């Protein structure tokens, strides 16, 4: 079986069945899904009834079971990102969720409402930008992993050979994966970020590619998924690979990011920064060792760059991380702590060079992956930098972009693109491409985890901090605060449902979605709206002494009532918490 999936598809719909027709040259396969029995079979084109309603699709994302029964999820729109060694890379931009059932009359009112909510969750995940696929190339593996494979691996289907950490529709494809004969219809989809650019330096043209692969293990949103689980999977784990293709030679530099790998939580409670809590009874070393055992097997040596504050609420986490590394005493792991905010305060971002100088020799030892035009491996990357801050977003992305540039400098010099003594920073046209791509990568990772664009992207885009950048950071921080407290429960439930961490059981006597929200949950948003309205009135009435005074009294009165409510009731009672899967709660 060739390692490809069908690229051109048509969906034919009848009341009884879905027919997915392969339209590639020479293909006669048709995937048939029985809408009543849910049976999946492989047939040929002559079995498609002429009465079927036909539409083009670009891939099968998979199937999912909700209260009303099964649903088929298909890709209906795609955008070409570029070509990757003659393989086309696509972004899925629109989807359709099709019910197997022809009617909902078999559902009660409560079941109808639950089914509607579950559908909204699936559509929410699909609306988050960043789903990528290729019908001919394995996007889930790095160049180095793909270079070290057997002939048997090369013959596997894309679904079989994929790195399951990065197949976001793995749960949705479970029925197709059980039948190898239909694997050419099973399209593994990556979630994260991909950008590709054709660049020129000194008249020499090369392709520059950036790929971030977001893990579907311990996936979730900012405050509800932190630390590691019992299997050693870290929250917000992302593998980022930077690739250069020049005159047939390919170079790659891989980095990872992931939450501090101990058992800790940071549940939202209306405070701007909830206090992180480290589990006092968990076996941290067990999870920690599981995490790094797998990281060493996959990537080799681990150079940890911990960017959290070394004072205040983040200090215990930094100390815990350092202690665990020391206790593990592995020669494959090196720990570097760099207090990003302290070192770069007062916008002294030039001081990041302190960290780069500190790890320069180590980076040279780790090297990068390089293969020549005939496929011979010249160098292997011997390990990775594993960077983290609290969210593994803003500070982390800044450092990763600087380490990647340093590696790229060495690669382009070795390939003969850069002359001896030339610096990437001096190549204005390429620098603009490079900085904007890394800033876009930061925004993509941040939106997928925190719900907003990244902070500090003004530095990534321009190389310096700006006043406008500070204002935008303030705005994004405000949006994060609102989402983290008032909508992240729904976002977390959506991810858990999509990934199969929660399975719908229509026979369940008590719906997990029926947890009532009492008046105090509704009170805070109302108070916030009224207080904001009073503020607007104050501005509109400025200049009229008595009305201005009255407006201020009303505003501060409402604000005081709001404060009283927050003090009277624990802030945790107001937040939108997940309902489907119980998240770790450490008090």
Automatic annotation (TrEMBL):
Keywords, sorted A to Z = Membrane, Transmembrane, Transmembrane helix
Q: Which EC number(s) does UniProt give?
A: 3.1.3.64
Task: Locate the transmembrane regions by residue number.
Answer: 521-543, 549-569
Q: Where is the SAC domain?
A: 122-451
- State the PROSITE patterns in the record: SAC
Q: Which reaction does it catalyse?
A: a 1,2-diacyl-sn-glycero-3-phospho-(1D-myo-inositol 4-phosphate) + H2O = a 1,2-diacyl-sn-glycero-3-phospho-(1D-myo-inositol) + phosphate; a 1,2-diacyl-sn-glycero-3-phospho-(1D-myo-inositol-3-phosphate) + H2O = a 1,2-diacyl-sn-glycero-3-phospho-(1D-myo-inositol) + phosphate
Fetch the PANTHER family from UniProt: PHOSPHATIDYLINOSITIDE PHOSPHATASE SAC1, PHOSPHATIDYLINOSITOL-3-PHOSPHATASE SAC1
Would you tell me the protein name for this molecule? Phosphatidylinositol-3-phosphatase SAC1
Q: Which organism is it from?
A: Equus przewalskii
């Amino acid at each position: 079986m060739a390692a490809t999936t069908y690229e051109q598809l048509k969906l034919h719909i009848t009341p009884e069945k879905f027919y997915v027709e392969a339209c590639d040259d020479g293909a006669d396969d048709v995937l048939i899904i029985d809408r009543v029995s849910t049976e999946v079979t492989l047939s040929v084109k002559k079995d498609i009834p002429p009465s079927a309603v036909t539409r083009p699709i670009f891939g099968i994302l998979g199937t999912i079971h909700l209260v009303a029964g099964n649903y088929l999820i298909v890709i209906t729109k795609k955008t070409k990102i570029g070509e990757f060694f003659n393989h086309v890379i696509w972004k899925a931009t629109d989807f359709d969720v099709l019910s197997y059932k022809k009617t909902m009359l078999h559902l009660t009112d409560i079941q109808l409402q639950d089914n509607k909510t579950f559908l909204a969750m699936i559509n929410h995940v699909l609306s988050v930008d960043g789903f990528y696929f290729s019908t001919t190339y394995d996007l889930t593996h790095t160049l180095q992993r793909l270079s070290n494979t057997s002939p048997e691996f090369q013959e596997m289907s894309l679904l079989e050979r994929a790195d399951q950490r990065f197949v976001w529709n793995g749960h949705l494809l479970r029925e197709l994966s059980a039948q190898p004969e239909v694997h050419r219809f099973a399209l593994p989809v990556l979630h994260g970020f991909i950008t590709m650019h054709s660049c020129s330096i000194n008249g020499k043209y090369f392709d520059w590619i950036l790929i971030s692969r977001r893990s579907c293990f311990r996936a979730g949103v900012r405050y509800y998924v932190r630390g590691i689980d019992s299997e050693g999977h870290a929250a917000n784990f992302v593998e980022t690979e930077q690739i250069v293709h020049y005159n047939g030679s390919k170079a790659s530099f891989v980095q990872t990011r992931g939450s501090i790998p101990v058992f800790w939580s940071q549940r939202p409670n209306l405070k701007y920064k909830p206090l992180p809590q480290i589990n006092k009874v968990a076996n941290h070393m067990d999870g920690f060792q599981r995490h790094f055992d797998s990281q060493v097997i996959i990537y080799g040596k681990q150079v940890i760059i911990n960017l959290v504050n070394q004072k205040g609420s983040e200090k215990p986490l930094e100390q815990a991380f350092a202690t665990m590394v020391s206790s593990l005493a592995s020669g494959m792991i090196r720990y570097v702590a760099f207090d990003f905010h302290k070192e770069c305060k007062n916008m002294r971002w030039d001081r990041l060079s302190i960290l780069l100088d500190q790890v320069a020799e180590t980076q040279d030892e780790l090297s990068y992956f390089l293969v020549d035009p005939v496929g011979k491996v010249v160098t292997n990357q011997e390990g990775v930098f594993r960077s983290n801050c609290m969210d593994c977003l803003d500070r982390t992305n800044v450092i990763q972009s600087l380490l990647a540039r340093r590696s790229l400098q060495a690669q382009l010099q070795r390939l003969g693109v850069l002359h001896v003594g030339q610096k990437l920073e001096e190549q204005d046209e390429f620098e603009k491409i490079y900085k904007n791509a890394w800033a876009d990568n930061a925004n993509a990772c941040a939106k997928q985890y925190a719900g907003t664009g990244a902070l500090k992207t003004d530095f990534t885009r321009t190389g310096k901090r700006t006043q406008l950048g500070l204002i935008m950071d303030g705005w994004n921080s405000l949006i994060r605060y609102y989402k983290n407290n008032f909508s992240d429960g729904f976002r977390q439930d959506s991810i858990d449902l999509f990934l199969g961490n929660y399975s719908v059981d229509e026979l369940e006597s008590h719906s997990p979605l029926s947890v009532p929200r009492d008046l105090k949950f509704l009170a805070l948003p109302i108070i916030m709206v009224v207080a904001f309205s009073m503020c607007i009135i104050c501005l509109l009435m400025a200049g009229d002494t008595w009305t201005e005074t009255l407006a201020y009294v009303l505003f501060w009165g409402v604000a005081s009532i709001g404060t009283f409510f927050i003090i009277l009731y624990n802030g945790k009672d107001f937040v939108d918490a997940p309902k489907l899967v119980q998240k770790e709660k450490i008090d």
